[in-house]
């Protein structure tokens, strides 16, 4: 398989993560097509990178575990439905052991995001901001949702270079 096709397939994941984060940031929603595209693109990308079938199975198991955890977090109203789907799709792509790094960095990024939102949602900041885009003003509203897809994307983008999917591709070059 050509190096260009391998690179294109592996580039889909980070590109879709960035789109998901931006959509969540400006609209507090992540469309289903983003998570579906991530999940559907995994197998062709894994095969193009030369990942063995047992490793692909382990990726599927990590994705399933992330899905179960994400459903629980959604049921507890800790994250939204789009966040849950992106979390599961990211787990599928990252596999083990990159999923551990992913979850730690996602948690840290989520904490920073929450602290930042507390700061910008203060009465003082909102009183001194004018002319900001509509999405930014919505982001600053008291009680507005937390675009946790941003934290998920940060964690996944940080962990992706250390995934065995990238390792397998590097071994093929």
Helix content: over 70%
Please indicate the count of domains: 1
Structural class: mainly alpha
For the biggest sheet, the summary is: none
Mean pLDDT score: 92
Could you name the ranges where pLDDT drops below 50 across 5 or more consecutive residues?
A: none
**Strand coverage percent:** under 5%
Radius of gyration: 17 Å
Order of helices and strands: HHHHHHHHH
> How would you sum up the global shape?
elongated
Number of helices: 9
Number of beta strands: 0
Q: How far apart are the termini?
A: 11 Å
Tell me what the structure shows.
The protein is mostly helical and 173 residues long. The protein has one domain. 77% of the residues lie in helices and 0% in strands. The chain is built from nine helices and no strands. The protein has helices at residues 3-27, 32-49, 53-75, 81-94, 98-120, 123-127, 134-139, 149-159, 164-172. The longest helix is centred in the N-terminal third of the chain and has 25 residues, at 3-27. The mean pLDDT is 92.
Could you name the key traits of this structure?
single chain, 173 residues, mainly alpha, 0% strand
In short:
The protein is mainly alpha-helical and 173 residues long. It has nine helices and no strands.
How are the SSEs placed, and which strands pair?
Elements (H helix, E strand, L loop, with lengths): L2 H25 L4 H18 L3 H23 L5 H14 L3 H23 L2 H5 L6 H6 L9 H11 L4 H9 L1
Helix pairs in contact: 1-2, 1-8, 2-4, 2-9, 3-4, 4-8, 5-8
């Amino acid at each position: 398989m050509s190096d260009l096709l391998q690179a294109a397939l592996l580039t889909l994941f980070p590109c879709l993560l960035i789109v998901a984060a931006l959509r969540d940031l400006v609209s507090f929603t992540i469309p289903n097509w983003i998570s579906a595209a991530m999940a559907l693109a995994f197998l062709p990308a894994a095969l193009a990178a030369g990942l063995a079938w047992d490793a692909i199975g382990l990726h599927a198991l990590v994705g399933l575990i992330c899905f179960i955890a994400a459903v629980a977090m959604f049921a507890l109203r800790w994250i939204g439905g789009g966040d849950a789907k992106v979390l599961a799709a990211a787990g599928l792509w990252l596999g083990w052991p990159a999923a551990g790094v992913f979850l730690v960095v996602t948690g840290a990024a989520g904490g920073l995001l929450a602290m930042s939102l507390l700061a910008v949602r203060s009465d003082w900041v909102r009183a001194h901001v004018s002319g900001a885009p509509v999405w930014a003003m919505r982001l600053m509203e008291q009680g507005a949702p937390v675009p946790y897809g941003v934290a998920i994307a940060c964690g996944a983008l940080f962990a992706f270079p250390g995934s065995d999917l990238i390792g397998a591709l590097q071994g093929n070059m």
